[in-house]
Amino acid sequence: MRSRRRSPELLKLQIDFRLLLQTSLEDFNIHSIQKVLENKTELIAIASKLDEFPVGEIDHLFFKGLSYTVNAFYLLLEFYNNRLLAINGADILKSASEMNVDLLSDILKDLDKDRPSIKGLILLRDSLINVKQLNDLQVLAEEFSKISLPMMLTAEFNPYARARENNDPKEETTDGDIGIDNTLISVVFYMDRELWANPQIIKPQHLYSLHGIVKINEWPKGYEELVLSQVSTTNDEWFTLSLPIIKFTKDKEIFIDGNITLQNSQSMLEAPIAIKLLAQFKGSNIKPFYPPIIGYDQLILRVIDKNSFVYPTGYNKLNEKVLEIVLKIQNDIPDIPKEELENFIVLLSAILNYQGYCYQQAIYKDQSNISEDKFRDTLIQYLSARPELASSLVKEGVIAGGRVEINYKGIVAELKVEKKIADRKKIIEKYQKQPSAYASATAAQLSILCVLELTPKVSPPAIAAKNIFFHTPVLHGFENIQSSSKIVIIIIDGNTPNPSSYR
Amino acid sequence: MLKYCTVEEYHAATSFLKILEEIKTEYKEFENDWFKIVMKKLVDSRPNFYNSDERDELFMGIYTISFDTVQQDIQLIIDFMDSRKEEDLYDVVEALNILAYFEQYKIILQQLKKILPNFKRVKLTEHFFRFCELLENIAEFEMHVPTGNADKNYLKNIIDEIEKAKS
Predict the structure, then answer these.
(1) Which end of chain A has fewer CB atoms surrounding its CB within 10 Å, N or C?
(2) Integer angstrom CA distances of residue A407 from A329, B91, B134
C-alpha cells in the first residue's frame, strides 16, 4: 500500500523556488543578465533539492524536468553573458544547455501533456531550442515567468517499505524524523508473577520484582537503545522503578527484569497512584524519539500498610476486609461522597472491632437467648468507648417510621438476633431490606446489618472475616438494575459451645 | 465489471474496484469510471482515524489519474467537498491537496470561499484555517502567473507563516 502525507519541507522548497524564479524572471532584462545570473546558484541548488526530494515516481519526473529547465535556461543566459563579455569557452555552456533540453524532452514524454504546467514546459523547451540571438532571451524569460506550476502539498511514501529493510543502527541517519512513524512498542509486565493489571495493592518499602515482555514491531533506524522510564501521578521521589536499558537488537520480543519499590503508604481514602511507562529511543547525533506504547503500560496501585487504616479494626484480617469493601465501593460508586464513605468506615471498623472482640473472647458463648435490646445496648456501650464515635451515636432514632438501632452521622446500622436460621444466604435475604430502607431515608447509599446468630453450633464457626458480606440490595423500581446502594452484613456467631465439645 | 464495483457486498465491491484500478492504468478509458466510483465511495463514507487505509488508498489513487479525467469531472471533487460536515476537516484538506496537485487554483479559491463559512475557527480548527490561508495565497499567486500579474507578496506571506510556525 502506498500513501501520501503532508510535507512542509517539500512545500517550503517549492515556495522558495517559486519566489526566487519569479523574482529573477520578472526583473529580467537583456541589459542586466549579470544581475539575473546572481540567483543562478541558489535557484539551481533549490531545483536540485526538489529533484532529490523523496516523492512518487511521476512527481519526481516533474521536478527533474523542472531542474533540467532551470539548468538549460541559466546555462543559456551564461553563454550569452560570456559572449557579451568576450570570455573564452562560452560554447561549452550552450552545448550543456542543449543537453539539458534533450534530457528535458526525454522526461516530457512521460508527463501528462494536458496539464497547464507541462504544456508551458513544452512551449518553453521549444523556445529554448529556438533561441538564436540575445533578444530571444527576453521572450524566453517572459514565457518562463508565465508558467503556472502545480503545488505538491503531499509527498508519496510507502509506509511498509522500511519493514523490509534490515534495521542496522550502523546505517545511521542524522534525521530523527525519517522512518519512525510506524514504530510501536507493546509491553506486558508481571509484578511478582501477577499480571500488571489494574489495580494492584502493594506494601510500602517492599521490593517487588517485575518481569516484562517488550515487543517492538520495528526498531527505528539510527537508534541504539530503548529506555523505559515512567511518568506518574505522584512525586517521583516516592517510588523507585528500575528497568534495564534495552540495547539495539534484531529480536522482536525482548524479556526484561526489573523492580519497583514505593516508599510511603497511603491513606485508604486517597486516590490510587498511577505510574505509566514512557518509552524513548536514543541514539548518538539523533534526537530522542518517543514511540507509542500499547498493552499493560500503566500500573494503578495503592500502597497500603497498617498505617493506611485511619480507623483500624484492631484485627489484621478484618482490616484487609475493610480495605476490600472500600475498594469495591469506590469501584461500584465512584462518585460516593468522601464524607459518607469516611463515616461508613468509622462505624464499620468499630462494629468489626466488636465482632473480632466477640470471637476472641467468646462473649456470646453458650448463650441462646439474647434479646435484640440487650445485644444493641451491649454493642452501643462497646462502641461508645471509641472516642471518634461516642458523641455522634444515636440510639433508636426514628427514621422512615421505624426505629433504627444505631445511627452514626447518617450511616445506619441495623442489629438483629437470629435464633433459627444459620444459612448465611437466608439470613441476608431475611434482613437486608430494613437497613437499606433506613439508608434510603437518610439519603445514604451505604448501610450495615449486624446479626447475632444464636443457632446451636454443631461445627466450629468460620473466622470473623468470612462472616462479612458485601451486598447490593434490590430497590423498588430498580429490580433489574444494579443499584448504587450497598450493604455490609456482619454476622457474629454466638451460642458457641466449648471448643472441646465439638466431636 | 463496473456493476460489481458498486454491489452492496462490501468485500466483492472492494476487490473489483482494486481490479478496475489496475485496469485503468493500462486502459485510460476506464479512468473516468474508476474516478466516479471512487468519488461516490468517498462521498458515502466519513474519515475514520482508526482505519483510514482504504480511504487513503482511494485518495492516493486519484493522484495517479490524468489531468484530463480530473478536469472533466472536477464537479465530483466539488460535490465531495460540499458534502463534508464540520467534523470532516480531514476530507476537505485531502480534496484541497488534490486540487492543488492538479493545478485547479480557480476551483480552490471558489471552494474556500464557499466552504470556510461552514467551519468555526476555534483552537481545534486553527491548523485547518491556517492551511486554507496558505492555500489561498498559493492559488492567488499561481492563478495570476499566466497573466504576468502574479503578486509575489502572496508567496512572501507563506514564507512568513512558515518562519512564524518554526519559531
Answers:
(1) C
(2) 20, 62, 70
